[in-house]
Amino acid sequence: MSIFPRSKQQSHLTNLITQLSLILLLLIPTCFGAIPGYYQGGNWSWSVLPHAPHLQEIKRFKNTGLDIPNWQTIKPQKKVLVAGKTWSIQVLQPNQNSVSSPITLLLLPQNHYLDKPEVEWMDINGLEKWQTDSFEQLNFAVANSNSKTVKANFFRAWNRQQTFTVVQWYAFPDGGSYGNFGWFWRDLIAQLQHSRVPWIAVCLKIPLEPLSTLDQARPLAISLAEEIQVSLSKKMSAE
Amino acid sequence: MQFIKKKWLITPYFKYLSIALLTIIYLPLLLHWYDGWLHKTISIEHEYFSHGMIGLPFAFHISWLKRKQWHKLTDTNNYLGAILLVFGIFLYLTGVGELVNLSLPIILTGICLWLKGVSGLKLQTFPLLLLLLATPNSLPYLITPFTLPLQKFIAIAAGFILLQFNLDVSVEQIYIAVEGNIVEVAPYCAGLKMLFTSSYVALMLLYWTGKIRDRVSVILLLISSIVISIVANIIRNTMLAFFHGTNQEQLFVWLHDSWGGDLYSALMLASILLTLNLIEKFDTPSKN
């Protein structure tokens, strides 16, 4: 019990002060939290979650895919159902250098204000049924800022036909994260300002020569992931 | 002296006033919790704490039975209580659901420490624990990415059981294919809700029977309830994969979405009660 400060027997006066201070303290949430809610007919701020900003624009990605500067979508963008959720799938090629093999971009925009990032990467595993190894964290910046605020997952994956490097992360207006905790704490802080953090799950499949290492794909992975994050950030924080 | 005499006239009303204020602040929140548990309108995570439907009245009941002991305790301040109280009020005033929920156990713990010191907290430890474990929070959401090993284990175990029935079974990661029909052991099927519920019920039973003071019984029953809920969940997933694989969709829906699931939970809780009886039976002769 040493973590608690020693308690002392109190006089009648301190007893009175103790009780009175409790009442006064409890009056604060009563007057500034509870009663205004009763007055508005049971509309307490904790009973409803605010809506994420720009959700309508974000949902549109499902139908349109994403335009990335200096890259073109070479096949028509499609919608694909993965574990009950609608992803956008598009195949990209750089404008200048069309020799490199095309890259696949999968996007899952938040669809409803109550949707949270959950187990999208497991769903992708179920879709692709690939083998994976060489997991590492890929850090990059949102825009011109120096702080690397996106922490993506970067790994090698292969099936019978092909080998890929894969980059996966949840994109937010001001950053990105592979895990759901990265979204959770940002969203909690946004809720303090009566707002929310919208999100888009991004999965990038870059073809790789069989048995080559992640290092060979790293420069391209980082530059393309940055472009995507910047474009998504713009859409998510547009006025 | 005059002042002290007057004080004796008003302090008894203070406790009623603080109870009234707490009711004004938290009754809507508790109704909101119950509404979410009964009508499943808030979120899947909220339903993970639905054991609070019996846990909270039980906690209130225990606290009420202890009111005489509470009054006999000497009045002492503990400043940690004041800190918790102020912190809890701050959380409530943020108006963010997650934090408002947490403010209730924090404020009540603070009040115990502030009015009666450490002995006050000790007296109310169990009801406060019941409240804390029933306070809806995002922990079930945050651990979903980490339940994968458990999901894989359930898939493998269910696949193994189905093999014994000479069915065409294959298991890949968290997917069980029976006769070509695939069932996924999703994170929310990993049985964590039943694990939460059964441990919570075990805790209440231990208190109810007075076994809570006996460390061996507590450890035994908590471990058995964890084992029971995992085994029960493997059986449940096996049955679901079997129904789906043999095209008995009605039975699948009955167990997955209808009252079959409730019956299943009830059977599981009954087996925990049975285990407690067994523990009591073996415990008594050893003491003689």
Q: Regions of chain B with pLDDT < 50 over 5+ consecutive residues?
A: none
Largest Cβ-defined interface: A-B, 53 and 59 residues
Low-pLDDT sequence parts of chain A: none
Secondary structure: helix percent of chain A: 25-40%
Largest sheet of chain B, if any? 3 strands, antiparallel
Alpha-beta content class of chain B = mainly alpha
From the spread of the alpha carbons, the general shape of chain B counts as: elongated
Q: Give a count of the beta strands of chain B, DSSP E runs of length 2 or more.
A: 4
Q: Percent of residues of chain B in helical segments?
A: over 70%
First-last Cα distance of chain B: 59 Å
Mean pLDDT of chain A: 87
Oligomer: heterodimer
Would you tell me the structural class of the helices and strands of chain A?
alpha+beta
Helices and strands of chain B, in N-to-C order? HHHHEHHHHHEEEHHHH
Listing every helix as H and every strand as E from the N terminus to the C terminus, the arrangement of chain A reads: EHHHEEEEHEEEEHEH
Largest sheet of chain A: 9 strands, mixed
Counting DSSP H or I runs of 4 or more residues, the number of helices of chain B is: 13
Q: Please tell me the overall pLDDT of chain B.
A: 89
Number of strands of chain A: 10
Number of helical stretches of at least 4 residues of chain A? 6
